[in-house]
Amino acid sequence: MTRKWRKLCLEEQLFLAGLFVPFLGLAVGWGYPLVSSLLPSFMRGCIWDKWFGVYCLGCGGTRAFFALIRGHFLRALWYHPLVFYGAVIYALFMGSHGMAFLTRGKIRGMTFHSGYLYAALVILVVNCILKNVLRQAFGILLD
Fold it and tell me: How many CA atoms lie within 13 A of 54 on its CB side?
């Protein structure tokens, strides 16, 4: 008996890939503290922060990730709003497609739009500028 395979649409591919994200998050959550503790002190932290005294586009991302998995949502939002935004979009996307799968298409899953990526880019840039203005002008640090 032969089975015809249909080509998966982008949303279906993203849903299947998204099923592995929690496992990847657990691996990073358990492995990162171990690996970072083995690094010499000069290799820990952001080079931009250490050498130039400014935050880079990703500064606070690791702290936001760990705050998010511990349930400290406001702290995660402060450390790096893009991590929080990504988690919300992921939860909405996976939840809607999970419901679409369970109802066999009666509920439509969320569709991919490039606007989500543009919003992420805006959040990334605004966050970097805002955090550096707060640091340089007012002495407010990320910690």
Answer: 10
Indicate the angle between helix axes 61-69 and 81-102, nearest 10 degrees.
Answer: 50
For 86-120, what is each residue's pLDDT tens digit?
999 999 999 999 999 899 888 888 998 999 999 99
Output DSSP code: residue 54. S
Q: How many CB atoms neighbour CB 69 within 10 A?
A: 14
Q: Compute CA 27 distance to the chain's CA centroid, rounded to the nearest angstrom.
A: 15
Report the predicted TM-score, pTM, of the whole model to 2 decimal places. Answer: 0.83
Long-range CB pairs of 89-95, under 8 A, 24+ apart, other chains included: 89/116, 90/18, 90/21, 93/14, 93/15, 93/18, 94/15, 94/18, 94/19
